[in-house]
Amino acid sequence: GNFTNHVLKESIQLDGPSLPNNSTTTIMFRYLNQSKLEENKDYLIYSHQNEAIYGNNKKVSRYKPKWSHHREKRLPQVIIIGAKKCGTGALQEILRLHPQIVSPREEVHFFERYQQYYLGLDWYRKQMPYSYKNQLTLEKTPKYFITPEVPERIYAMNASIKLILIVRDPAERVISDYFHVRASHPNILPWNKTFKEEILNTKGEVNISSYIVVPSLYAVHISRWLNVFQREQIIVVDGDKLITDPLSQITKVESFLSLPHLITSKNLFYSQEKGFYCMQYTSGYKKCLGKNKGRPHPNIDPQVMSKLRRFLEPFNKHFYTLVGYNFSWPNS
Ligand code: A3P
């Protein structure tokens, strides 16, 4: 239909050239396949209730607004740096519900892989989705958290970048990592090693250099980041709360990013079948994370768990001091 432009300007937030009041604009509405819409947040305007209206760029490209040249691929202003198996995927997916956040589907592994890093920042930028200038580009690669070279490299790109670290009970994280590596990368851990054999050495002590123990030494890793970045540049999200009360953590992140609180309880629902919160889009389309997120964990020998928790305790205490928050993770 035809809309006078002062009405249009009132009701739609436009990131483009200003519209003269005394003219009219034609808006064409088309029906688009819901699941495709959610996957392709390429084309987006806001309704006056601040709800996002998504479009699939492939289907609407003929109707691209004139100001679409304002969409660019930009370097990330926000990075989820880790920690692996703490809910980084869920956090990224839920944040993608926000109309002012765009994020690539894949982990980019730019700053920690030599062969990617030396392709340069322009290559990195090209891995990002298109965004309007009022949107933030968010990247997520959990390996960054534990890779010593990464903080300096990110700082060299953007000294005032915002960083998101999500952590959960580090002993639970070790279990999650074990079952993840077994399922997804069976060649990394010797296939016949049990959890106990993987984390304990022949003397029965926790193996500090085990591939699945190292990422849980949060204090060791965060120290390196705090040597480079201001504490205020890093938000620490509680991954255990992200499971039980995701909105509490998402609201914190929206505030940290100075974004309006547009992700609401309407966007999240608990699925009995999945056993986790899932997402509901404005269109009504629903989506849970895939099978590789939220795997059932077989029971672990309580004595092994207790040993692991006692080993992690001093690292945890140091971490609480460094970030200024006591997570009270179990210590035996
Ligand atoms: P498990 O699969 O071991 O349960 P990451 O994305 O960093 O790899 O983290 C995966 C973990 O995210 C899962 O570990 C799961 O516990 C947690 N998680 C948090 N919120 C979730 C959600 N809404 N759906 C699925 N998994 C979620």
TrEMBL record:
One of its GO terms (molecular function) is [heparan sulfate]-glucosamine 3-sulfotransferase activity. Keywords: Disulfide bond, Glycoprotein, Transferase. Residues 76-313 form the Sulfotransferase domain. The active site is at K85. 3'-phosphoadenylyl sulfate binds at R168, S176, Y277, K293, G294, R295, P296, H297. Disulfide bonds join C278-C288. InterPro entries: NST/OST, P-loop_NTPase, Sulfotransferase_dom. PANTHER family: GH20068P, HEPARAN SULFATE SULFOTRANSFERASE. This is Sulfotransferase domain-containing protein. It comes from Meganyctiphanes norvegica (Northern krill). The lineage of its organism: Eukaryota, Metazoa, Ecdysozoa, Arthropoda, Crustacea.
